[in-house]
Automatic annotation (TrEMBL):
<protein>
    <submittedName>
        <fullName>Amino acid/amide ABC transporter membrane protein 1, HAAT family</fullName>
    </submittedName>
</protein>
<feature type="transmembrane region" description="Helical">
    <location>
        <begin position="6"/>
        <end position="29"/>
    </location>
</feature>
<keyword id="KW-0812">Transmembrane</keyword>
<feature type="transmembrane region" description="Helical">
    <location>
        <begin position="41"/>
        <end position="74"/>
    </location>
</feature>
<keyword id="KW-0029">Amino-acid transport</keyword>
<keyword id="KW-0472">Membrane</keyword>
<feature type="transmembrane region" description="Helical">
    <location>
        <begin position="221"/>
        <end position="250"/>
    </location>
</feature>
<keyword id="KW-1003">Cell membrane</keyword>
<keyword id="KW-1133">Transmembrane helix</keyword>
<feature type="transmembrane region" description="Helical">
    <location>
        <begin position="256"/>
        <end position="276"/>
    </location>
</feature>
<feature type="transmembrane region" description="Helical">
    <location>
        <begin position="94"/>
        <end position="113"/>
    </location>
</feature>
<dbReference type="GO" id="GO:0022857">
    <property type="term" value="F:transmembrane transporter activity"/>
</dbReference>
<dbReference type="InterPro" id="IPR001851">
    <property type="entry name" value="ABC_transp_permease"/>
</dbReference>
<feature type="transmembrane region" description="Helical">
    <location>
        <begin position="134"/>
        <end position="159"/>
    </location>
</feature>
<feature type="transmembrane region" description="Helical">
    <location>
        <begin position="191"/>
        <end position="214"/>
    </location>
</feature>
<dbReference type="InterPro" id="IPR052157">
    <property type="entry name" value="BCAA_transport_permease"/>
</dbReference>
<dbReference type="Pfam" id="PF02653">
    <property type="entry name" value="BPD_transp_2"/>
</dbReference>
Length: 285
């Protein structure tokens, strides 16, 4: 029983990180109608920035505050310079552009940091085990789940309770009407792209102490993040949350009981959802 609970918690942690990436992808696609295949590489860049900040300051805590800001500025710069000219063009152009950007970012990191990867230490404050009675779990894993929960709640409140969030949601539904009302839509596109990249950066910060950081880490998780978006429903906020946690737990349990199938389980689930509920678990019907 203890091993089962431990595996479920591991699944919730990996699923929570998938949720952050999927929410960023959903926001960007919803408002910009732009599939960002460089999202995983930006997540990787955030993880590397966090690793260097952790070494420079002796702690991961400053990275949790600094990295989202740095990544938001990077995202805003990318949107205004190379992403914006892609609006209105064929999606193939966007895919080619972001594929190219992905490899530029990966090779840039290799040139600066090398190909060997970097270890990131768990914050000293969280280097203990939490006794849950039948199982002891690393405090850092529970911390990750809590932080992701706070980020998800913050994003939800931002989208539901602020004027900016209202305009973003309206733009996702009908950006032509928003433009007709005189709203400076390009500014909101920049904001949403920056926000999506910032959230990916937070995921990178949290991942470092668990897996370390390495140039290919974004490619390893990006495909799963897209699976989460499809399973949850394109543009569905809570769909991404539910699907991310579901896929994380299912993969983790499959690893425990039938590890040979763990790699294909998310894709089997995606095929089933696309067959029987094409709009996703919580997508509009």
């Amino acid at each position: 029983m203890g091993q089962l609970i431990s595996q479920i918690v591991l699944g919730l942690v990996s699923g929570a990180l998938l949720v952050l990436l999927a929410l960023g992808l959903n926001l960007i696609f919803g408002l910009l109608e732009f599939i960002n295949f460089s999202h995983g590489a930006l997540y990787m860049v955030g993880a590397y920035v966090a690793s260097y900040l952790a070494v420079a300051t002796g702690s991961l805590w400053p990275a949790l505050l600094v990295v989202p800001v740095v990544m938001a500025l990077l995202g805003a710069g990318l949107e205004r310079t190379i992403i914006r000219p892609m609006y209105g063009r064929d999606q193939v152009d966007a895919l080619l552009l972001t594929f190219g950007l992905t490899y530029v970012l990966i090779e840039g990191v290799r040139m600066i940091a090398g190909s060997g990867g970097r270890r990131v230490s768990t914050p000293e404050l969280l280097r203990f085990q939490v006794d849950l009675g039948i199982v002891r779990l690393p405090a850092y894993l529970l911390f990750v789940v809590v932080v992701v929960g706070l980020v998800v709640a913050g994003l939800h409140l931002f989208l539901r309770r602020t004027d900016v969030g209202l305009i973003v949601r309206a733009g996702i539904r009908d950006h032509v009407m928003i433009r007709a009302l005189g709203v400076p839509f390009d500014r909101y596109r920049t904001l949403v792209f920056a926000l999506g990249v910032a959230v990916a950066g937070i995921a990178g910060v949290l991942t470092g102490p668990i897996t370390g950081v390495y140039p290919e880490m974004g490619a390893d998780i990006l495909i799963l993040a897209f699976v989460v978006v499809v399973v949850g429903g394109m543009g569905s906020f809570w769909g991404a949350v539910v699907a991310g946690l579901l896929i994380g737990v299912v993969v983790s349990l499959t690893t425990l009981y039938a590890s040979v199938y763990a790699g294909i389980v998310p894709f089997v689930l995606m095929i089933l959802v696309m067959t029987f509920r094409p709009r996703g678990l919580l997508g509009a019907t």
